[in-house]
Amino acid sequence: xxxxxxxxxxxxxxxxxxxxxxxxxxxxxxxxxxxxxxxxxxxxxxxxxxxxxxxxxxxxxxxxxxxxxxxxxxxxxxxxxxxxxxxxxxxxxxxxxxxxxxxxxxxxxxxxxxxxxxxxxxxxxxxxxxxxxxxxxxxxxxxxxxxxxxxxxxxxxxxxxxxxxxxxxxxxxxxxxxxxxxxxxxxxxxxxxxxxxxxxxxxxxxxxxxxxxxxxxxxxxxxxxxxxxxxxxxxxx
Length: 237
Description:
Helices cover 73% and strands 0% of the residues. It is mainly α and 237 residues long.
């Protein structure tokens, strides 16, 4: 059983793709338990940072309705809306888009800020399960020798780059998604290579297949959620 106090060390080593944390999780008595705990812990910390950051952002800015009207007024004065074939519809669409952005950032939406505490860890767990379960199955097809529990343990380290998102606790600070995403995929590759004793070529190919599948799932799910949220906001206008 890995002691929680060693997690920061393992996270740091995983960020530079050292084999030690992967081997430790693969060899653990209950690797999937360790993996679940590590994933939830990082997700909870990031969710808490996002919650605190959105609360501080709301506290340091005027009321969301005031900010929205100022932005709409500025856009209207720029003449952009007047150039549209239907200025009224263009203004309504702009207002809806800004409201959606405010909601996504947790600006003035208390329920969204609270949801971050739940949705962030949940999303990390779902990603961990996808890359672990699908990765295990595909890796076995490519000659991998690892067990599912070992894959779950090693794959949990893919959450390590998300610690960069702790910076979002500061208002007006944003962290791009590209760096943590690419970094996580490198760790996915390393986890497959070590947990299944794959060559770097096969581990890389399995990772690419996983990415392709994830992109398809993300696009379908994201599109459905965006359409639903857009309809909800439009109906409440």
